[in-house]
Hints:
Number of helices of chain B: 2
Mean pLDDT of chain B: 87
Shape of chain B: elongated
Radius of gyration of chain B: 22 Å
Largest sheet of chain A: 8 strands, antiparallel
Number of domains of chain B: 1
Structural class of chain A: mainly beta
CATH architecture of chain A: Roll
Structural class of chain B: alpha+beta
Oligomer: heterodimer
Amino acid sequence: MEIITKQFGKLEFDEEIIIEFKEGIFGFSEYHKYILITEEEGLFYWLTNIEEPEIMFPLFSVRLLEENYPLIEGYEAFGIVRMDKNPLNITVNLKAPVYISQNEKIGFQKILDNDNYQIDYKLFVEK
Amino acid sequence: MLVLTRKLNEKIRVGNDIIINVLAINENQIKLGIDAPNDVKIYREEIYEKVKDYAVEAAKRSTDKPEQDIKQLAVNKLNVLDVRKKED
């Protein structure tokens, strides 16, 4: 298959890598088929919709932030990243993680019933 | 919109499988118990809206490139944030 994205231009991929989001991402419930793009040496993953490739969510692996973060067996947990020209304003949504099973090729987003996690957690601090 | 009046411990049934029970009433707060099948997702509306708006904004800004090299920054740890909060 082939899609054209703003971020990466033309992408060719095997249908086998498509991840099915049965209920979509919040606000995008009508879109179900995504691929997860990893950049070499990049900090972010890019969850790209193949039905509408303009729809792309940068993701950050939550495991790097906190060891005790609620995990689901077989799934990797990611937070949706809101980019910003000023990196100190880049945030990650820890309240509503995206869980992805790379083996099963399924994913879903869940709102955690836990007040410890912020929707707009600032990802970077100055060293 | 359907408007119903309920007293403490009176219930509302939505469809065949969902029951909402008034568990406690205070001056400006009520506590509800909701019994629903697992596949029915229940959210606090204001949080649902925020999560939705956040995703829309994240998709819109996904191609924004940081002007500064992010490798020069440290990834914020939750405990770092906690410390920062206490200092504020």
